[in-house]
Amino acid sequence: MVFIKNGTIYTMAGEVIENGSILIKEGKIIEVGKDIIAPLDAEIIDAECRIVTPGFIDAHCHLGMWEEGIGFEGSDGNEMTDPVTPHMRAIDGINPMDISFREAYEGGVTTAVTGPGSANVIGGTFTAIKTYGSRIDNMIIKNPIAMKVAFGENPKRVYHGQNKTPMTRMATAAILRDTLFKAKTYLEKKENAEEASKMPDYDIKMEALIPVLKKEIPLKAHAHRADDIFTALRIAKEFDVNITLDHCTEGHLIVDELVKEEKPAIVGPTFGNRSKFELQNKSFDTPKVLTEAGIKVAITTDSPVIPLQHLPLCAGLAHNAGLSEIEAFKAITINPAEIVGLQDRIGSIEVGKDADIVIFDGHPLKDVDCKTYVTIINGEVVYRR
Fold first, then answer.
1. Fewer Cβ atoms within 10 A, N terminus or C terminus of the chain?
2. Global pTM?
């Protein structure tokens, strides 16, 4: 057992608890509040004058898919030989031994939703993992958790370079429609086959898309520009599938329309330069504008674009741009958990949830020199400064 005492606890499930305590047993939170008595056999961590938060969550990154400090040998995020690769699985490309994992949990990030990049129209499946471990199979929270699709500049740039389709936004949309229609037909044939001989021949690409059609996982739509966001929504409606709007860079320009859609937004990466034309309107105002309109917002680093340990910095910059403190915290804790459907396990400090907890010496959103004191994942102290 682990007992945290005397902390200022941001539970993300109610009021901030001053001088609060948390009791952890067998990897789960079993008690939160004030005036809790520490069991005799518990490891005691004194959080006096420190801030305690749930472990931070990035709902869209590529942790472990592009390894630190190497080029081609560690680049496993984009299979740029075919614009349609739904059968690619992030779990087969992640290296949890990469230093970026240690830096992430030392920075307070305990969960990453990670997967393929945006070179392809359909890139493959994302997975949700804890950031501590040496074997990916033991780090998984849910797999698959989403199917990556991409709109805008990236697919057309990649395949223009190969002199093949898609070279336009029209082609990107057409390829996605065609593939989803084929997958729908494949699923119908499987469901209507009364005997084995009538079953369609096994197709690994179509099989990978069945969870999308059954609404077991959403499309995870890379879309920066307003017109690309609307194309993503249009296709999701046509095929009656769930979708999250990832990046949503121009979301603040079309907020009135997005409110009608009632879809969550995973915003970022906002820190850094405008490296391509479709990022010309990126702004730290976006989380505030969307949140105040009632849209559920998560903030992303898109790691390795921004190193994952700087997720709280990104939330802090959004706070500096007008997003309230509590909403900035929510954007890297409970909101991403709810957006990806893992709120029953992570995202807040509540009884029964995974004991993913971080203790900071300062305020992680406001203090540039704030340091992590302790990181706990699944009830285990994985970092202590």
1. C
2. 0.97
